[in-house]
Amino acid sequence: MTQTITAVYENGLLRPLTPLALPEHSRVELELRTVDAASAQARRERVRQALAAAGVLVPRDTTDAHAGLLTPAERATLAHRLAEAGVPPLSAAILEEREGR
Questions:
Q1: How far are the Cα atoms of 50, 55, 56, 73 from residue 35, in angstroms, in the given order?
Q2: What does the pLDDT read at residue 101?
Q3: In whole angstroms, what is the distance from residue 23 CA to residue 25 CA?
Q4: Is this model's pTM higher than 0.70 or not?
Q5: What are phi and psi of 10, to 5 degrees?
Q6: pLDDT level of residue 27 (50, 70, 90 thresholds)
């Protein structure tokens, strides 16, 4: 299994910003590359474009709170397509934005 995650290096340890789908005591190989603000912004833009292309962006001024929401099957399909395109989970982009990266 291959996962792409974002982590923060603190006090000599790498701290993942999202939960890992790994059993305890799993051994993994790491390939490190630093992430600068520009590449984080580019990733967020790729996510936005993928969501727009999939037709799942809901206008902020909609009066129907459920307008444009996906069914569970549609969400699973979208998650699969985003993963295939190399787009990290939305939760990672949200955490990066909240942490100002």
A1: 21, 29, 27, 32
A2: 60
A3: 6
A4: no
A5: -140, 130
A6: very high
